[in-house]
Amino acid sequence: MPPVLNTILIYAKNPPATAAFYSQFFGFETSGEMVEGLIELTAPASGASILIHQAAKSVKLGQAGVKLMFSVEDVEDFKTQSAQRGLVFGSTHQANGYAFANVKDPDGNSVGVSSRAYRLG
Q1: What is the pLDDT of residue 43?
Q2: Global pTM?
Q3: Are 19 and 32 in contact (CB under 8 A)?
Q4: pLDDT for residue 6
Q5: What pLDDT is stored for residue 65 in this prediction?
Q6: Sign (positive or negative) of CA dihedral 78, 4, 11, 42
Q7: How far, in Å, are 8, 112, 118 from residue 109 at the CA level?
Q8: Residues 6 or more apart in contact with residue 55 via CB below 8 angstroms
Q9: Among 36, 56, 76, which residue terminates a domain?
Q10: Looking at residue 45, what DSSP letter applies?
Q11: What is the model's pLDDT at position 59?
């Protein structure tokens, strides 16, 4: 059986704030409790879980090497709902039958929403 990606670990300067970000804006469930140095977030339906880990002072955050991309059917609707809760995405971009938009989490990591998984054909 091939390996399955089921967990994403995010290093954060302020783990509770980062956990709250993904919980509030993307629906992840969490107790917010730090256990064994990690805050665990569970995907609301299916998908990978997230572990938030306290970043060492030497870790450089917010680099563009990794981007978390969340699938949504309607990018504009998601952006509108997010803005009402205080998260403002950048411009919506169109590509080969789908749309996407980007934002940064509290640690400067790239996060996006995309309708690519829902495109026709």
Answers
A1: 92
A2: 0.80
A3: yes
A4: 82
A5: 64
A6: positive
A7: 13, 10, 24
A8: 11, 12, 13, 61, 107
A9: 56
A10: S
A11: 75
User: Is residue 109 exposed (0-12), middle (13-18) or buried (19+ Cβ within 10 Å)?
Assistant: buried
- Closest of 96, 120, 105, 102 to residue 52, by C-alpha: 105
Residue 41 C-alpha from the chain's centroid? 11
* CATH number of the domain residue 99 falls in: 3.10.180.10
Place of tokens 């998908």: 47
Q: How far is the C-alpha of 39 from the C-alpha of 51, rounded, in Å?
A: 6
Tell me, yes or no, whether 41 and 84 share the same domain: no
Q: Which amino acid is at 13?
A: K
Q: Give the number of domains in the chain.
A: 2
82, two tokens: 């997010």
Block mean pLDDT (10 aa), the chain, length 121: 76 93 96 91 90 83 75 94 96 92 91 87 60
Contacts for 86 with CB less than 8 Å, ≥ 6 apart: none
pLDDT attached to residue 90: 97
pLDDT for 64 equals 57
